[in-house]
Specification:
The chain is an alpha/beta fold and 427 residues long. The protein folds into three domains: 6-134, Rossmann fold; 140-238; 284-395, no CATH class. The chain has 13 helices and ten strands. It has helices spanning 16-29, 54-64, 84-94, 112-119, 123-128, 140-152, 164-175, 183-199, 210-228, 253-272, 281-335, 339-394, 421-424; strands at residues 6-10, 38-41, 69-72, 105-110, 132-134, 157-158, 207-208, 403-406, 409-412, 418-420. Strands 2-3-4-1-5 form a five-stranded parallel β-sheet, with helices on both faces. Strands 8-9-10 form a three-stranded antiparallel β-sheet. It has a two-stranded parallel sheet with strand order 6-7. α3 links the parallel β3 (69-72) and β4. α7 packs parallel to α9 and α8 (183-199) packs across α9. The chain is flat.
Length: 427
Amino acid sequence: MHILSCLSLISPGTGKTTTARKIGQFYYELGFLSKAEVIECSATNLVGEYVGHTGPKTKKQLEQGLGKVLFIDEAYRLGQGHFTQEAIDELVDCVTKPKFHGKMVIILAGYDRDMNSLLSTNEGLSSRFANEIIFPSLLPHHCLELLEATLSKEDIFYDLHDAKGQLGEIITELSKLPSWGNARDVQTLAKSMIGAAYQDETTEILSLTNDTALLCANNMLLERTGRAKIFKGIPREIPPMQLNYKQSAPNNPDVKLEVTTQIQESAESMVDNGRDDGVPDAVWQQLEEDKNNAELRAKEAKENRIKQEEELLAVQKAAKEAEDTMRQYQECEEHISDETKQMELMRLRELARIREANLKAEQGRRAREIENARKAEVEKKQKEQLVQEKLKEMGVCCAGFRWIKQSNGYRCAGGSHFVSNAQIGLL
């Protein structure tokens, strides 16, 4: 059986290194490689710094991969810069020599377009790397599943059911861009959503609303299309002042600093919701106090959840210890003939059994308390979301500021507008 001396791997996403390892393991088990090992390198490891340096450097790297898999990541860089042509020529020449031919697997990894450009730099390169493994981009619904899985790991309440269609459309547009990184970019998007949830001071519970999730996704789309100089498909409804301030900055560094500062100030004004003109001191002071109280309650609620979980773990541990103690007493009884000692062990075992039963009952009670508290938090969050959405629909605050809960209603964070509980329909 003849082993392929070379494989080319074209990948626009993740899984390259994993695939390289599987290829190495496969040929190792067939007996064609001496080791199921992957030697990872890049163009830097092959290209020299002066004339005559690249050839020996490339050959040395190939020697390190003998009997193994030589994995050259971002291989398209071999077609860029000084002395790279020498590296390509040396690579083409070496793979056909007896020393290397049939004795190793060479994998070139890179994006489709870049790899095609690389293979065109040398007529013999394409024929020597005739096998391709193409990694297609993740489908939008797979990206959404990964996004939800990432968000679920955080202590954040979210329900993206109503936004899935729009999120899927945005991810579809993102996947069409040349810079789309599949799972890596989904993780980046999830981090921005998590950050937004932590910055939301509207409620006591960490949460992610549909509007916030769509805003984060729209921001990423605008940023990526801006980088690629492709503006097709950018949703027009994105509020300009809510965009990530780095996305609209021009290329000139001096101008960029000025524009960045201006847009950042505008964004901060929307997040921090500065005091509106004409708001009385007493009203503003009460509003600030309500903001601080909301933050304090959220902090206390989180600390209480952590404390409850720690106490539950302590009870679980104690129950396990009681169970182990009871088992030890039982084992001792079986090996002791003295009746008095057996009676004492039986008494101790019964005490341990009672303690275990009580602790398990306590464990169940505490677990139910935590679950009930979680459900109450979710219900409270859902109710608060409905109130915020209703306030938004009412359009009382034209600036679109968030609403702060007060004793008898809600006031916008700028201080100018107030809506009573009766007006909202909470009474």
